[in-house]
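Researcher: Re-running this chain for the archive, since the previous output was lost when a drive failed. Same request as before.
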Amino acid sequence: MLDPTASQGRSCLPSARSRYAILGAAGVGLAGLGALKAAKDRKTRARGFELVDPPVPGSPEFGRLLESLTGSVVRRGNRVEILRNGDQIFPAMVQAITSAQDTIDFSTYIYWAGGPTIAAFGDALVERAGAGVEVSVLLDAVGSAVKMDRELVDRLREAGAVLEWFRPPRWYTLDKANNRLHRRLLIVDGRVGFTGGVGVGEEWTGDAQDPEHWRETHVRVEGPAVRDLMGGFQESWAEATQRILTGRHLPHISGFEDGIDVQVTRSSATKGSTDIEELFYAAIAGARDRLWVTTAFFVPPDAFADALCASARRGVDVRILVNGPHIDKEVLRRAAQRSYDRLLRCGVRIFEYQQTMLHAKTLMVDGAWASVGSNNFTNRSLALNSELSFSVSDPRIVAQLEEHFQDDLRAANEFDLESWRNRPLRKRAIERATSPVRDLF
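Model: Regenerated structure tokens:
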């Protein structure tokens, strides 16, 4: 099998036939390992966590809880900008790349070929590498290899960039094949960072105006929290390359007097860290007034369905915004719908987005705290992949995210319990048929 990480002097991206063979072999391994993982974890997921008098998200007590649970340090003095959809996301990232003087560190699950906007992103990386900037690119071998522009790989390496693949499928690494790099990180000069849900592909361009252009949320940050984004990059980079980045990648960063508090939580694609699980569970348990969730894929483990129901029963306004007919994986939509009856009965409100593919991942609590990240509300994101959640305790930022959420609801259909219970038997059968694969996603 051709090794995508073997040489920097030539393109080592597999041929199209080899790439599909690799993906097929990986798929078989992922399915088998995923089923085994699901069987081992089923009892744990059913139990969940018990929180006695959970603190309110956004409070100092909640910040301390996250520090103790996940090691997510409260970073003060950050400037944060919410970026909505490709028309805002890509110009901001390209501008940051073209301004780089020392280093660019970039990792993503998906990097696919595309039109002018995607080409401009790649061209900016090539130009900066050629100008002497230290450019480090890490791509997930399963998410990006099949659709990656092979010519761009050559151009990046010829310009001096270091491009590596995260966990290319091989027979002797099948124990890790089901754990993928799902974080999306861009750090420029160690001082400006981006994270969230965006992939580099034509689907993420535009302004969610039609089914060909997806709905996304991303974050730009300056301040001490950038160091934590760099930590998320370093962890995966060190595994893939056996190299640790120092010097110019890690400058001193001062906080801004007008900045806000940020916590970065990450889970690692090893044995399935529970940090993201604990973060979400604590936020749900601590909600007092409203709990609004946007997620591309919603297949909650039993413990999380219980936690959502418990919040609704104590009077919290729980709303879940998920994908509708434009989802790119219909099996996940059907798997999600198996949970609807239970959640609707306990008072959770569920909405399906109708405009395009919904790829944003946000969690907002009580108008005081919010999380934007790469993680979906599924077993894969909560327990299997390398993910990253960017949390803020700032009413202004949370209000902006809530405004986006309410705007998205206007393009969504809400489920009614009575109508849902009267759905055709054929749909019920399809939902039940997803049981064997629910935990793989």
